[in-house]
Amino acid sequence: MPRLPGVNHLQAVRALEKAGFQIIRQGKHITMSDGVHTVQIPRHNPVNAFTMGYIAQKAGFTPQAFRDLL
Predict the structure, then answer these.
(1) Of 29 and 68, which is predicted with more confidence?
(2) Distance CA 54, CA 3 (A)
(3) Closest by alpha carbon to 1, among 37, 65, 55?
(4) C-alpha to C-alpha distances, 45 to 11, 25, 34, 52, 62, nearest whole angstrom
(5) How far is 12 from 69, CA to CA, in rounded Å?
(6) DSSP string, 6-69
(7) What is the pLDDT of residues 17-39, one digit of tens each?
(8) How do strand 38-42 and strand 22-26 relate by DSSP bridges?
(9) How many of the other CB atoms lie within 10 Å of CB of 56?
(10) What sign has the CA pseudo-torsion 7, 13, 14, 18?
(11) For the whole model, what pTM was predicted?
């Protein structure tokens, strides 16, 4: 799995919103979708680096492309 730095969950939400994702629902996790990909971001500070890599991969980004959004 690609490795990204651990980031605050709010930074991850903002980065995905820049890429066209919208929040579908919120609870212990924030679920976001762009119509094709659906990802869940845990409300942890910071989100684990391996988890962040998996979220970026599931959203269809390379690690470098996701870093650029942050």
Answers:
(1) 29
(2) 8
(3) 55
(4) 10, 19, 24, 12, 22
(5) 9
(6) -B-HHHHHHHHHHTT-EEEEESSEEEEE-SS-EEEEE--SSBPHHHHHHHHHHTT--HHHHHHH
(7) 999 999 999 999 999 999 999 99
(8) unpaired
(9) 26
(10) positive
(11) 0.86
For residues 19 and 29, the answer to whether their CB atoms sit within 8 Å is no
36 contacts: CB under 8 Å, gap ≥ 6: 60
d(CA 15, CA 62): 13
- Token pair belonging to 56: 């970026």
Structure tokens at 53: 């890599």
Strand partners, 30: 26, 41
| Residue 45 confidence (pLDDT) | 87
The answer to whether the bond into 5 is cis (omega within 30° of 0) is no
